């Protein structure tokens, strides 16, 4: 056991050193120029409150994009769950094709999907709505059919033998089993979709991102500060609503009132539809759609197997190094901040730290990228620092959920018997939270691999920069090769993450 632990530690250290070298990580540079990040952020305060009137309309559009995309994605995801399930859809070939499509759309970042949609559907809100819908539907379909394949089928088989069709039997028994988890995942995606919709304007897909990009380009930082303050309030309201609905979801499991969450989401959708008006949709650019399809079907093969600097393998390796270092750095800080923001340890004093963590989560990833580029210049080093900051808030939230769910009785028993606080944490707390922490870190690594592609819009290294350039120059064969590389990398990371979760569930069941 000790030898295997040393081997794993040696592998992690080696990966760390290689990643530091590949991303040109430089502590002296960070020490020398790091104050530029703080100085630029400080110039956003106090925010320009007179700019609030300009913000409200694109902010409303942002909320509408995220809400409509979530509602439509939830409906399509439910259909995808049914069609990808082997008990209902017994056409194996059709299931394989549908699952492949789900994996492809799940692996492409929302911002890249939105950029592709602008070529096909034109600039505006509909490109953003379609991108959010496709991403949400893909994630929910995958989680839904995986949960349904692990569900108990005895009741469904009994109902089918009694004369009910396979779909009705599955719907009555299996769907009711997985519905609470499906709705909980839908609420988590609503939170992330609000953050994603805030940057869709960077590619012309509607929302407040266009205004944010413009003010950052003109360095009108007080107006940028006002936009970020409003986004902070929107994210706070969204997470509060999501948390409230999750609590009621848990309570409703025993009362069979699972309609509660869909009713609330549809009510908000109707409310925003009344305020916004249904957006007009432009025609489909069939020429652009055909060019994109051709690039995806027949990508530039030489790029996929060449070892040149701008080829897919080298760019994927750089992307992997950026995501690894960013996740590792975010984990270190999230471990500390999650303890400082835990009510079980610090009481109401932890509220301030929780509000600070929300700041980390509410600032769009591209804003962090643009600020760090002012420090390090374009390149992978800026991408590492950006991913680290983005990881802190979301990892700390997952860590907090793990801490809040553990049993503190063993800890209190050890403390009462005179054991030192560090020893009590080591033996009573760490064994309970470690599996959850590892699962959260692996999941975040999976997300960061896709987020690095988004940083290509600001030139922060990885596969995203040449991908965005190829798309903007209509070089679809090159873009297809880069997209397939990103999809395969994200799929491999997702497979590793799922393998760990399954092995953990097996150990837990034993």
From TrEMBL:
One of its GO terms (cellular component) is plasma membrane. The chain crosses the membrane at residues 63-88, 100-121, 194-212, 224-247, 259-281, 315-343, 381-400, 452-469, 481-500. Gene3D superfamilies: MetI-like (1.10.3720.10). It is a multi-pass membrane protein. Residues 59-242, 316-497 form the ABC transmembrane type-1 domain. Pfam families: BPD_transp_1. It is found in: Cell membrane. PROSITE patterns: ABC_TM1. GO terms for biological process: transmembrane transport. Keywords: Cell membrane, Membrane, Transmembrane, Transmembrane helix, Transport. PANTHER family: ABC TRANSPORT SYSTEM PERMEASE PROTEIN P69, PHOSPHONATES TRANSPORT SYSTEM PERMEASE PROTEIN. Belongs to the binding-protein-dependent transport system permease family. This is Phosphonate transport system permease protein. It comes from Succiniclasticum ruminis DSM 9236. The lineage of its organism: Bacteria, Bacillati, Bacillota, Negativicutes, Acidaminococcales.
């Amino acid at each position: 056991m000790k030898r295997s632990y040393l081997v794993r530690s040696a592998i992690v250290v080696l990966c760390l050193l290689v990643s530091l070298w590949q991303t040109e990580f430089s502590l002296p540079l960070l020490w020398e120029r790091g104050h530029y990040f703080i100085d630029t952020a400080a110039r956003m305060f106090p925010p320009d409150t007179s700019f609030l009137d300009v913000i409200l309309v694109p902010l409303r559009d942002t909320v509408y994009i995220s809400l409509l995309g979530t509602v439509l994605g939830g409906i399509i995801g439910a259909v995808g769950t049914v069609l990808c399930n082997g008990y209902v859809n017994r056409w194996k070939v059709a299931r394989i094709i549908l699952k492949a499509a789900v994996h492809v759309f799940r692996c492409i970042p929302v911002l890249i999907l939105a950029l592709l949609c602008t070529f096909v559907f034109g600039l505006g809100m509909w490109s953003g709505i379609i991108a959010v819908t496709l991403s949400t539907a893909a994630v929910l379909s995958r989680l839904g059919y995986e949960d349904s394949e692990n569900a108990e089928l005895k009741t469904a088989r009994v109902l089918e033998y009694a004369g009910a069709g396979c779909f009705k039997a599955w719907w009555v028994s299996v769907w009711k089993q997985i519905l609470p988890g499906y709705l909980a995942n839908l609420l988590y995606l609503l939170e992330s979709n609000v953050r994603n919709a805030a940057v869709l304007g960077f590619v012309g897909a509607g929302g407040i991102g266009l205004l944010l990009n413009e003010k950052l380009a003109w360095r009108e930082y007080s107006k940028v500060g006002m936009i970020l303050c409003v986004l902070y309030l929107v994210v706070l309201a969204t997470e509060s609503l999501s948390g409230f609905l999750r609590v009621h979801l848990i309570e409703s499991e025993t009362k069979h009132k699972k309609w509660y969450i869909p009713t609330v989401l549809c009510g908000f959708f109707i409310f925003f539809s009344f305020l916004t008006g249904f957006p007009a949709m432009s025609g489909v650019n069939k020429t652009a759609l055909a060019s994109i399809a051709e690039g995806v079907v027949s990508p530039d093969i030489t790029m996929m197997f060449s070892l040149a600097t701008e080829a897919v393998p080298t760019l994927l390796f750089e992307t992997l190094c950026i995501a690894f270092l960013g996740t590792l750095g975010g984990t270190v800080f999230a471990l500390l901040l999650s303890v400082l923001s835990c009510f079980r340890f610090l009481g109401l004093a932890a509220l301030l730290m929780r509000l600070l963590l929300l700041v980390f989560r509410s600032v769009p990833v591209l804003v962090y990228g643009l600020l760090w580029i002012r420090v390090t210049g374009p390149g992978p080093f800026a991408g590492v620092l950006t991913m680290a900051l983005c990881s802190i808030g979301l990892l700390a939230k997952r860590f907090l959920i793990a801490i809040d769910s553990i049993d503190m009785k063993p800890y209190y028993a050890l403390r009462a018997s005179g054991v030192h606080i560090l020893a009590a944490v080591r033996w009573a707390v760490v064994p309970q939270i470690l599996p959850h922490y590892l699962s959260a870190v692996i999941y975040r690594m999976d997300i960061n691999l896709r987020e690095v592609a988004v940083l290509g819009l600001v030139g922060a290294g990885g596969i995203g920069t040449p991908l965005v350039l190829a798309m903007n120059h209509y070089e679809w064969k090159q873009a297809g090769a880069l997209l397939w590389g990103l999809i395969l990398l994200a799929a491999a990371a997702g497979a590793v993450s799922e393998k760990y979760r399954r092995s953990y569930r097996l150990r837990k069941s034993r």
